[in-house]
Design a protein that fits this description.
Helix 1 crosses helix 4. This protein has four helices and no strands. The protein has a domain of 52 residues. It starts with a helix and ends with a helix. With 86 residues, the chain is mostly helical.
């Protein structure tokens, strides 16, 4: 199943909004806003992302892939999902 960047980004934004923003709109979150620096996500939240990626796209995440370059922004997460899925 092919995924477009916009579809992946929309699913990720929805997940962030419902699990981390607690009533705030995902539209307030920029594609390059750091989840960690803004306090939206902590290390436990990263594990929630991993579970979401596994459930939604069947992505297995190796320990060495648990880096801010992959998980710290909507843009980074979208690129990671697109790289890891056919």
């Amino acid at each position: 199943m092919e995924k477009s960047e916009s579809e992946v980004k929309a699913k990720l934004r929805s997940f962030v909004s419902s699990n981390f923003l607690l009533g705030k709109s995902a539209s307030e979150l920029g594609d390059d806003d750091s989840f960690l620096e803004s306090g939206i996500v902590d290390s436990t939240g990263i594990l929630e992302f991993v579970g979401f990626l596994q459930e939604t796209w069947g992505i297995e995440v190796a320990d060495e892939e648990l880096l801010p370059e992959n998980f710290d922004t909507v843009r980074n997460l979208t690129a990671f999902v697109l790289r890891k899925t056919p």
